[in-house]
Amino acid sequence: MKNDSGIISVSTPVPSVNTDNPPVFTATPEPALPDGTFSIASKKEAVQLFIDQYVDDYEGLRLVSECFAEDVKMVSDADLDIVVDNTKLKGSVIIAGSVDNNMLINKLVQEGRSLM
After folding, report:
1. Following DSSP, what letter does each residue of 9-28 receive, concatenated?
2. What gap in Å lies between CA 83 and CA 108, rounded to an integer?
3. How far apart are CA 88 and CA 86, in angstroms?
4. Strands 45-51, 93-96: parallel, antiparallel or unpaired by DSSP?
5. Which 3 state secondary structure label does DSSP give 49?
6. Band of pLDDT at residue 12, cut at 50, 70 and 90
7. pLDDT above 80 for 43
8. Residue 11: is its pLDDT beyond 90?
9. pLDDT class for 30, splitting at 50, 70, 90?
10. What's the CA gap between 113 and 107, in Å, rounded?
11. Does position 79 have pLDDT exceeding 60, yes or no?
12. Contact at 8 Å (CB) between 47 and 38?
């Protein structure tokens, strides 16, 4: 069972002496995310993943990004959008690339922004 935030947490009770009863699993709400963090996927919604289509390693980044999107889909049933147009980005975003080889990462570095 999922809570209102779409996050599932499973806990098991302390094993009892009576082995005729199977363990009971209960869903408990996850605590709020710590400051400076964000959820990659919840409630069948995922963040966007940006890759710069004008870099030399675009094909490799695209392949890795597609594999990552498939993994997110498997564990959350959410579709992670791979975006190549930075004007279409919204909300929290994962940026795949490297310093000096991604226009958005370079811009963030020039502005002194955190890349974590």
Report:
1. -EE-PPPPS-TTSPP--EE-
2. 17
3. 5
4. parallel
5. strand
6. very low
7. no
8. no
9. low
10. 9
11. yes
12. yes
